[in-house]
Amino acid sequence: MAGRVVIISGGGTGIGLATARRFARDGDTPVLIGRRPDVLERAAGSLPGAVALPADLADPADATRVAQAVAERFGTVDVLVNNAGGNGLLEPRPPDGTAGPVAEAAHDWTTAFRINTLTAVLLTEALRDRLASPGGRVLFLSSIAAYRGSGSGTYAAAKAALHPYVHDLARQLGPRGVTVNAVAPGYVEETEFFGSGMPPERRDARVAETLNGRPGTPGDVAETLHWLASHAAGHLTSQILQVNGGAERGH
Fold first, then answer.
1. Contact of 23 with 15, CB cutoff 8 Å
2. How far apart are CA 97 and CA 132, in angstroms?
3. Nearest by Cα to 145 from 102, 201, 87, 190
4. Which intervals hold domain Ketoreductase (predicted)?
5. Annotated catalytic, 165?
6. Angle at 39 between CA 145 and CA 70, to 5 degrees
């Protein structure tokens, strides 16, 4: 399975970078996409053969530009990992009290869907005709929050919105031999999701929910994504796999 073209949004840090490293070890070509050119270039420079394509994937023109660049350079996409996203509450917000609660809610919900849902949908739609057929793999990053909420509801709802898209896309692409799945991690350390960090008592509570007594790592998620992209997972599609140490079970 060596020599595949692997598109990874949000590939400059955290889970995305760990995923790029995992595929690069197989001799695959990671194509890293993200909003911060300096972060992407640094990440790509640390990986053999990696390519950086800076873009804001919530912008249809940027998503289209990425697809055109991929088409010109590679032709076919073997694996698409929709990892871009994050905590919308860390994005720039109106000054406290200046917009009013309804306007603030509109901002927070729109931001969450823009960075977590729209980025994944636009990149997928831009590249769907480029997916290797048969054998293509489309992967999404959901979250444990999609099952239990996220406090504000915005992030959880944005991630949960990907689930029906996974099922519909799997149905549409299945006849082409393309599988579509999502991974829903629990608490993962070594990412930028919590900004400057999580308070120790909150971290301890998250770890205590697991059955193996430890937080997740970007590598845990990367290995799952890598397996889902393998030949061994060729008959697995339209699934949401939880990677959370047993903090959330079933579904």
1. no
2. 50
3. 87
4. 4-210
5. no
6. 85
Which residues have a Cβ under 8 Å from the Cβ of 8 and sit 6 or more positions away? 16, 19, 20, 23, 30, 31, 32, 33, 81, 83
- Contact yes or no for 44/32 (Cβ under 8 A): yes
Q: How many residues does the chain have?
A: 251
> For every one of its 251 residues, what pLDDT tens digit does the chain have, with 9 covering 90 and above?
459 999 999 999 999 999 999 999 999 999 999 999 999 999 999 999 999 999 999 999 999 999 999 999 999 999 999 999 988 766 677 666 667 889 889 999 999 999 999 999 999 999 999 999 999 999 999 999 999 998 889 999 999 999 999 999 999 999 999 999 999 999 999 888 777 678 899 999 999 999 999 999 999 999 999 999 999 999 999 999 999 999 999 88
> Could you say which of 147, 155, 165, 187 is catalytic?
155
Range 104-125 burial, b when 16+ CB lie within 10 A, else e: eeebbbebbbbbbbbbbbbbbe
Amino acid in position 86: G
CATH number of 5-243: 3.40.50.720
Q: Where are the domains of the chain?
A: 5-243
Cis omega (within 30 of 0) on the bond before 134?
yes
Written as one letter, the residue type at 242 is Q
The 3-state DSSP class for residue 67 equals helix
> Does residue 148 contact residue 186 with C-beta atoms inside 8 Å?
no
